[in-house]
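subagent[fold] <- orchestrator: predict structure for attached chain, return tokens only, no commentary.
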Amino acid sequence: MQLTSENYYSQEANREYLSVSQFKDFLGTYGRLGCEFKALEKIEERWEEEKSTALMVGSYVDAYFEGTLEKFKKENPSLFKRDGGLKAEYVKANEIIARIERDRYFMKYMSGEKQVIMAGTIGGVKWKIKVDSYIPDAAIVDLKVMSSITELKWVKDLGYLDFVRYWGYDIQGAVYQEIVRQNTGKLLPFYIAGATKEKEPDIRIIHVTDNYLKEAMSVVEANLPRILRVKNGEAEPDRCFGAEEYPETGTCDFSQA
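subagent[fold] -> orchestrator:
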């Protein structure tokens, strides 16, 4: 199929292509457990991830820089209070946007082509990507809005990890870099344009260096065979820890996953 902005998130596209978010649904990251059963349920549209406030704030900022904020507001009335004003979380999102726009260096990285869709193959599997800010011949940039850029997370047997590896953004960078290379012939650096929801938003451009991307790509390649077998119905998916099946609805409770 030909990927477009209209069908990129469709069931058909999710069945035909693997994406970074889908890969992490199957495998997980240091910060979030994966669940093969839940990943399949999401692909088949039998279960949908709840839109958390944190996710919606990030989507709000994304929509602004993509140029689709008004459409986003119309599609998400939950952003507003009864009196029609924005809820406090989205007032904060506007403050984050204003802080970003005051910084010329940050805006330089956000000046690329927005939401660029590309497809390619890794490990014999078709992948799709959607780049927040693609600067041809120069950089691949992904915008992230988070609680903290500097906070480290403790992982047993590894010690403290930065947010990039904790949430698997190095995996995202590795896949994006390779798919862009396949489409353009250029091995471009991957950057995270990070902004925080702190009282005074912290903003930083973070270069995820190639040594981390190579290590992440080895993780991708090592786990692809299993994920592909499960996705294609050739192997039974592992069940989520604590998930209960409800035969009468065909849905699952992932609250303990």
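orchestrator: received. Logging for downstream: Confidence is low (pLDDT under 50) at residues 242-257. Residues 92 and 98 are 10 Å apart (CA to CA).
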